[in-house]
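Input/output pair, single chain:
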Amino acid sequence: MELKPITRLHEVYRIEELISASELSYVYTGHHIKSGDKCVIKEFFPAAAANRDVDGKTVVCRSPLLRSKYEELLRAFQNEIELLKLIQHPHIVAYKDNFTENGTVYLVEEYCPGETLEQYIGRKETIGTSSFFPADLDSALAYAGLSARAGHHSPGFEARQYNNWPRGRTQAA
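Output:
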């Protein structure tokens, strides 16, 4: 269960809409309340191990039996944040902020309008390595220590589906 639009977070951000959901998180568009700048807000929410509390915001571990898996996934999410803080590359979406609220962790990133990776792939009849990994994406992944062509990913990194790709920046987070 995702957060409702207009939900305020950290008294700084406001959720606009859900743009992606994975096994590990919900991803929303949002904006900075004072500046109005649009952003992407990623909420740690491991679907198999978490529920929302009765307030509709607080994230809680679903069962004591899942606690160790929940904490392992939380550490991976926090590792992703720490890695993003270190990476500055023109083809990787920029880290903006992170905070803990509602019993979970949020990551705020730069917003890049355009089609998603999923939409881009859907337009391709066949996807070979050269068409799937254009030079700018391959360069960004290599910079981040990833081997896109070999399919190897560093811990805490996964391709995102909510970014302008391949024309603009691409996120490996």
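Strands lie at 8-9, 13-21, 25-32, 38-44, 50-52, 59-61, 95-101, 104-110. The longest helix spans residues 67-86.
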